[in-house]
Amino acid sequence: MKRLSFVFMLGGILLGIAIVFGFGARHVLEATLSVGWLGFAELIVAQLAISIPLAFAWLVILPCRTWPMLPRLYWGRLVREAGGRFLPFLPVGGFVIGARAMTLVGLPMALSAASTLVDVAAEFTAEVMFAALGLAILLVWQPHSDLILPVGAGIVVAAVAAAIFIALPGQGTRLVQKLAARIGKGEGRALGSLDSMASQFDAIYARKAAIIGAVLLHFLAWLGSAAQSWLAYHLLGAPITLSQALVIEALLRAALSMTFFIPGAAGVQEAAYAGIGAIFGLPIEISVAVSLLTRARDLVIGLPALLLWQYLEFRRLKAGGSGKLPDMGAAAS
User: Fold this and answer.
1) What's phi and psi for 267, nearest 5 deg?
2) Total tally of structural domains belonging to the chain
3) Is 256 part of any domain?
4) Are 291 and 61 in contact (CB under 8 A)?
């Protein structure tokens, strides 16, 4: 499976290179650099701001939570995103790495695995809502678009999957057990019993209001991603409306979700930006530049988070297997 992931990733990288050179590498590079350091800094700040509701959503999910946990959950989200985008794994690898990172700062293994899976489900549900909103706007603007049928079918399938997960928490329990087993591989003592993991999962899902709150926070973050897309196009000199940015971002996410088997969406993200942007008459080199800026922004944010994760892993190994930070409050009990 890992070898296949490398093959898909390599193919995606080659596709991305072909897209950049196919539409004029010089024009793409000029557009990318035109934002300047100040504009690039604005994109970084915008992404860091979007991560705030994501951390709050994870905090809301935890049965026992304290405010001092929020900065660690914020960091855990950054690690999760960076792991999924820059390491040669499928997206689930980012989930595992993010959950693992939280165990290094005091969150119990079972709770870390269970809360990660529920948070991923809440984010996926919000993404379906976001994609549906984008499709609705596209229906108003271009009711005869060729994208409506395939995107609509994908949204229906995704909505059914989200509904099944919510309605059948027992299936989620088994997924939690598999996730926690991957996180705790080689560390049976830290893993704990499967009953403990199932218990944490049940405790989380017993608080329906918290789950709904997490979904709404994730939906807010998705709206923020649309605003950030608008900012990127604006900085590149291609002003679009917020509604157009929302449709572009929603269709982009729908496209990327269908190509989850390609690590980091290598190449696919560039192709999707180019194709979707063309619907609104945006120059292809501008849309590709937006994709490259997004990757550069994520690298600047994600690399320090991953380095801190590796430092904590090294410290834990040096300490003989402990090495987790204290003061997690009630959640660590």
Assistant:
1) 80, -40
2) 1
3) yes
4) no
Dihedrals φ, ψ of 89, to 5°?
Answer: -125, 165
Q: Residues 158-205: pLDDT tens digits?
A: 777 777 666 655 555 555 555 555 544 544 443 445 566 677 777 888
Backbone angles phi, psi at 147, to 5 degrees: -80, -20
Task: Give the side-chain half-sphere CA count within 13 A for 11.
Answer: 11
**61 in a structural domain:** yes
DSSP result, 51-95 = HHHHHHHHHHHSSS--GGGHHHHHHHHHHHHHHHHHSSS-HHHHH
Closest to 114 (Cα-Cα) out of 188, 64, 54, 51: 64
Domain region containing 67: 2-318
Q: Is residue 325 part of a domain?
A: no
Contact 236, 290 (CB under 8 A): yes
State the Cα angle at 230 between 301 and 239, rounded to 5°: 135
- The segments of the chain whose pLDDT lies below 70 read 1-34, 87-93, 147, 164-197, 257-268, 320-333
In a domain, 328, yes or no: no
